[in-house]
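Q: Could you fold this chain for me?
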Amino acid sequence: MVAGVALVPNWSAGAAVTDDPTVDAATKATFQKLADAVFTDRTQALVDDSPAGKHGSRHHRLASGFSGKVRLSGAQSREENSALTELRGRKAVLAKLGEKYSEARTGVTLDATQVKGRQAKVAVTETTTLTYRKIRGNEPKTTGFQAHHELTFKADDKGNWQLTGIRGTDDGVAVNQVRKPPVVPQPTARPSTKAPTAKPTTAKPTTKAPSPVPTTKAPSPVPTTKAPTTAPAPSTTAPAVVNDGNPPAAARSATTTNPPAAPKNFSASGYDYKAMADYAAKHWNNYNKDYPDFDGAGAGGDCTNFVSQALKAGGWKHVPGYVYDHTKWFGNSEIQSHSFIGVNEFSWFALSSQRVTGLANVYQMDVGDVLQMDFNRDGSKDHTMIVSYRSPQGVPYLSYHSTNTYNRSVASIIASYPNAYYYAYRT
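A: Sure. Below is the predicted structure, expressed as structure tokens.
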């Protein structure tokens, strides 16, 4: 939390600046405090402010308390007004779905500052925790996320810095973000019988190697007769992979509440679903050093890599082969198949190997099941998540990377992206 004007450092009032202004430690500290105020305001817009809520009144906007040498620009102030209005609308939607937050905590750290002339680029990390209000009684205690942002400040000829832009630098979706990918209007695009074409999102090209690995070390093909380094041999009981050269069609899942029951048999598959959930809880924000980290790698995020790790922890066995053969699946610290780390490639492997089956509705998911999203409805999926908890009332909660998030309800995700296509898989 921040206190506004009192946090702004002292300046020489009215002094003209002829040279490009410098950014000293005090100015950087105020950049950080203003960012903290902005994201705290956004988070608090989601918190229940009814008389039953902790505060009982609307949160006082902290960013409006900054003035003088470091403050919001007029345009950015209007942008924040719009964002807060949208987030309050999202809060109302969630309340109708039976979800509220009783309190929240947001903190921002400054990672780097680059100054060129009269413009400063400031990289920050936001860490937010929201406490679920006990409406149904079996909600998780909290949901949390960590997001990265780039803030743009511009200085006038007197050295006054104004925040003029905020850009999220993750590939994922945070609960207090208002940015939405463009949506393709109807008629909608259904999954094709051909491999989807490449696009610059979290999804990797299906017909080519996606190259999300660091550029200093490109993935090398592994002969199909030999398993990749340290990868276990495929299970002798694993179902055969159907490979006719085309990706299997994934049926879209409905997002309506109270769907027909689809109970999960937790013993039939032989997988340890609790181990999957435990892995997600441990590594949602504490990356496993036994695997590479693809966040910010330039070709997408770490979402599918994270989900594959959780599935592996629960008993999914390697299927060794060439990295670009989507009917193979393996991953360790040295090498990963594209199906282990790519969104569309994962879907191809999981469906063709019959390790997953489609669910008719996202609310039918249970612990260890997987949800994928196609943000702009072009037939190529963009994001992968895993269910880490399901309430007795039938609400799945998901964990994912890019943006690092733990126990976010499927209702919250749909409220943020009502126009996306969803693909739910029973594992």
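A (continued): Confidence is low (pLDDT under 50) at residues 1-18, 181-241.
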